[in-house]
Amino acid sequence: MSEKIYDVPADWAQHAYLDAHGYKAKYEASVRDPDAFWGEEGKRIDWFEPYTKVKNTSFDPGHVSIKWFEDGVTNVAWNCIDRHLDTRGDQVAIIWEGDNPSEQRLITYRELHDEVCRFANVLRNRNVEKGDRVTIYLPMIPEAAFAMLACARLGAVHSVVFGGFSPDSLASRIRDCDSKTIITADEGLRGGRKVPLKANVDAAIAKLADVEVDHVIVVRRTGGTVDMTPGRDVWYHEAADLVTTECPAAHVNAEDPLFILYTSGSTGQPKGVLHTTGGYLVYASMTHQYVFDYHEGDVYWCTADVGWVTGHSYILYGPLANGATTLMFEGVPNYPSNSRFWEVIDKYKVTIFYTAPTAIRALMQSGDAPVKKTSRASLRLLGSVGEPINPEAWEWYHRVVGDERCPIVDTWWQTETGGILITPLPGATRLKPGSATQPFFGVIPQVVDAEGRVLEGACEGNLVIADSWPGQMRTVYGDHERFVLTYFSTYPGKYFTGDGCRRDADGYYWITGRVDDVINVSGHRMGTAEVESALVAHPKVSEAAVVGYPHDIKGQGIYAYVTLMSGVEPTEELRKELVSWVRREIGPIASPDLIQFAPGLPKTRSGKIMRRILRKIAEDEFGNLGDTSTLADPGVVEDLISHRQNKK
Ligand code: ATP
Ligand code: MG
User: Of 424, 439, 453, 538, whose Cβ has the fewest other Cβ atoms within 10 Å?
Assistant: First the structure.
């Protein structure tokens, strides 16, 4: 992996909240006395009744229980909206940029208050109460934010399902949390194409013999025709006309649920992750402030969909709790052209930009020109999340997008963690491309071997977290046993992340991939990230995914799926060149045994490569691909199977 180090730019060390010394002192304080540290930090949000207890957590597999600020009473929507009204009622809270560049909306905090109250009243009129689950299946339109905050205002629990999911995936998520109310739109719009959301909801409900859906609230987005079932379905704009813009914020206990969100499904059946109110908001707010060094006047853009945890914590809750201006984008990076992201940055003078490696790699494919024709002068910070970012993609992001001026925060976290756990702080941390670097305040990462022994110094193994932090999930909805089994049984007493990792001599953490994906070649254990990064470093390669397959001599062989840069021909010669390239970059032990050129890789809807499916293909187990319901494009799998490399 890259050993290049980028120093903290001088102006950053000076103007950011914390420099290197500041980080160290604050981190040490946070782990020395979590009660004192979080007791103080909890005051960053408003409480209707203050907490007297701070941390009450146990990772003991016998009785896993996680409570923060447990006797405090608050409301997330109040904190994200009402408390800002006196000081920033006329400031823009949400910038909405439509799929079509001609569509936009600027929503001030005062307008946000009115819209959210209206939405909450529409829900209240349909008997939605504290604790009720509401499924939200919307495109990236402001109403998605209004609906989520409206639930929070009432103390109802939202379950946002990404608008790209099929009726089957939607149905299983409605059933799992037994929600009686669904919020959707007539159609979604992405990259100029319409998505039949309401029709999908109808199809999902038709599959749900065992769940009674009482209300479907339909937001008009495209004006496309949809079937409305009388008594059950209502147009949002009609219902909203009948209600006021005042709705009291429910008094909600810190440990009352805020939302359920299903994991991406990269490694198996999605889990219904449950997050609660107080600790989650404190943690989302604090990480948003420090990781992105958010200051008054920043224009902040996270490109995630609200259907993912990144959208929950870092489009909505963290930024709004901090009174920020947050940008919400309905479209895709390559519509109407590959310059779209950068044009949007110029249009709104975005200062902080947070996206995923999959988007960066896709945009890299078409070269520098679509980026360079834009200014991006407003940018001061870049972020990455979702997968390990290959050093090659990191360097491109830094050099081409950020003009070598903007630090990159590579943020490691999970749906389960609620917020960022391992990350640089831009004014404090020297950067190493490909490393998520160091723990956030209150986070105690450890590297353990297969037997659970804690490794010291430079080492490689499995990533666990030794103690609780406020943003941690509290349970798997309706299945606490699965929660304990999945996260606290592998290494009793510790939270098991499922990720492999390396810690270098400077104490920096490098995520090497999922533990399930580790390859063992002739007794050498290897993470997938390293081999993939070596392949991506080749000028003709745009993306790569590496898995193991049974090999008579080595135990496991290395099977690499490689996507080439646009316009590059896949040839036998190139195949050989890539094998010797990896051999040179990492060593003979890592040289791929088989390389399959693949025009596309199977990815989750959030853009993560699904290696478990690639592994099945490499193992010839086509009949047994497991849960494929969260795949973005199932067609890719058929294509890969038909072009599989012959292992004989
Ligand atoms: P499932 O748990 O259902 O298999 P998932 O793990 O893909 O799905 P998420 O919670 O969306 O669901 O993703 C979290 C995972 O994403 C992490 O465990 C890690 O593997 C990967 N990840 C996220 N950010 C980073 C990062 N900055 N560097 C490396 N890996 C990352
Ligand atoms: Mg996971």
Answer: 453
Q: Name which of 510, 574, 573, 582 is nearest 546 in CA terms.
A: 582
**Would the CB of 629 count as within 6 Å of ligand 1?**
no
Could you tell which of 412, 483, 487, 508 is best to mutate to test the pocket of ligand 1, judged by most ligand atoms within 8 Å of the CB? 412
Give, as one character, the DSSP assignment of residue 313. I
Ligand 2 centroid distance, CA of 365 (Å) = 28
Q: Specify whether the CB–CB gap between 467 and 473 falls below 8 A.
A: no
Burial code (b: 16+ CB inside 10 Å, e: under 16) for 143-175 equals: bbbbbbbbbbbbbbbbbbbbbbbbbebbbbbbe
Whether the CB of 386 sits within 6 Å of ligand 1 = yes
Q: What tens digit of pLDDT does each residue of 576-631 get?
A: 999 999 999 888 889 999 999 999 999 988 889 999 999 999 988 877 888 888 88
Indicate if ligand 1 lies below 6 Å from the C-beta of 70: no
> Which residues are 417's β-sheet partners?
none
Whether the pLDDT of residue 500 is over 90: the answer is yes
Q: Which candidate, 607, 191, 540, places its Cα nearest to that of 367?
A: 540
Give how far Cα 384 sits from Cα of 9, 85, 214, 408, 454, Å.
19, 32, 40, 7, 28
Residue nearest to atom 21 of ligand 1 (CA): 387
Ligand (nearest to CA of 393): 1
263 Cβ closer than 6 Å to some ligand 1 atom = yes
> How confident is the prediction for the chain on average, in pLDDT?
95
Q: How far apart are CA 85 and CA 49, in angstroms?
A: 20
What integer pLDDT is reported at residue 648 of this predicted model?
42
- The pLDDT assigned to 524 comes to 85
Residue with tokens 């198996």: 268
For a ligand 1 pocket test, name from 415, 502, 532, 630 the mutation site with the most ligand atoms within 8 angstroms of its C-beta.
Answer: 415
From 275, 387, 502, 631, mutation site for ligand 1 pocket: most ligand atoms within 8 A of C-beta: 387
What residue numbers does the annotated binding site for CoA cover? 190-193, 310, 334, 522, 583
- Tell me the whole-structure pTM to 2 decimals: 0.95
Is the distance from the beta carbon of residue 305 to the nearest atom of ligand 1 less than 6 Å? no
Q: Which of 39, 6, 265, 261 lies closest to 157, judged by CA?
A: 261
Asked if 277 and 80 count as a contact pair (C-beta separation under 8 A), the reply is no
48-to-72, 112, 114, 267, 605 alpha-carbon distances in Å: 8, 21, 21, 41, 39
Q: How far is 170 from 176, CA to CA, in rounded Å?
A: 10
